[in-house]
Predict the structure.
Amino acid sequence: MERLLNIAKGLLGLLALGALAIALAFTFRGLQKEAKPASQAFQSPIETPSPPYPPPATPTPQPTPRPTSTRPPEPPTRTPTPTFTPAPPTPTPEPLPTLLPGAQTFLYATTGERGPEIYRVQLDSTTHIIASSAYRVNTPELWRSRVYLEGLHPSPDGKRVAVSWVYGEGGTFVSILNVNDGTLTSLFGEKAAIDQRAEFLDWSPKGDQFLVLGGIDNPDLGGKAWLVNPDTGQYTPVDISQASDARQITSASFSPDGQAIVYAKSDCYQCGSKIWRISVGQQGGKHLLLEDSVLRVEDVLWSPDGRYIAFTQWRETAEFATGELWIMDPQGNTRRLLSPVTTGYYKRFTPVWSSDGQSIAFVLGEEPLAGRQANEPSFNAYIVDVSTGEVRQLTYFQNIQVLEPIFSPNDSMVAFVTALSSAPGQFEPWLVAADGRGLRRFDERATLILNTRAASPVIAWLPEFSPGGER
């Protein structure tokens, strides 16, 4: 019985599966009929008229566009506006203190971070510094790394200083320093379209013009001598026609009355030399004062009283070369040897007259002491009385090089510098009385060292001026 029941259940299951299969088949068939077009699914007995226009075309599916980056349009082309990099601020120099009448004014140069710097110091009647410190004058024109100074040349009236300087291999230049306000101007003015290379020779006695020599290869000045007005920059030629080359003129000097100029001409060492005197502002009037077939004349300088013309003669150019110091009368009739002299570091020796025209300061070298190197001679300062020929030694340094002796304005003191053997290019200023007493360093409170790129330092005294302070 149980077995029959199981068989019946199996048959019923088979019947259920068959019924399900049939139902699925009809369902699938109906779906196929729905998928056919209407014209096939249902045939209408009424004829459907054709439309008057073609059926719309089935649009061709377009690919989905990819997003693209859109660059904004370029701005119109414009000329770029130049941008200027501002220069580092230059500190505005403080105004120089008013020069005190009756005081002596001393100038010296040293090399700072920007280049050569000039300082101004005033001293009282005992040659001690009045101001608490030295005052630097405003010299931006010299603030260049390749610039070094050759000389400071005060005008006779004390208003200006002609500053001789060299720019590397670019030539020698002259600038004019106003000692009252410290400003520095170029030789022919800032706007002058002229080659500024020139060598300083001398101031006129009134200080209203000065004599320069056109630099070598200067196309505007042509290697000739010129008188320059420091106020206007105007320049006029001086008739020194015996020189065919600027290098032949070694020096020149005004007479105290300004009516004549004496100058030296020499081609080379061992080539001989001549000294001429010419009249200023007049045609002709040239006189040959001296001619030597061998020795070279390096310097001529008229005495302040007009009685003598000092000059030096040399056989060779060398470091610490020895020459001769001579004087002669303005007509060249009488000549007299005063003393041998020594130049320093291949630099020309210039006779330094006292303001009264009675004495000349100079340097003379001696042989080094035993045990010292041959390049360490002793240089000392001397004074010679031109009337009597008496030579007086002012300093007695051992194995020290003394350079650049110059008289103070009242002739009571002589300033000079000593070279520091332990530091090349560094020098120390000193003072000594004209009678050889009171030797001391320039600044007793501190050691003043002058750094310079040149072989020799530059120092100068300004002439004294009236108690009213007018120069």
Summary: The helical segments are 2-35, 38-41. Confidence is low (pLDDT under 50) at residues 30-91. The CA atoms of residues 424 and 455 lie 9 Å apart.
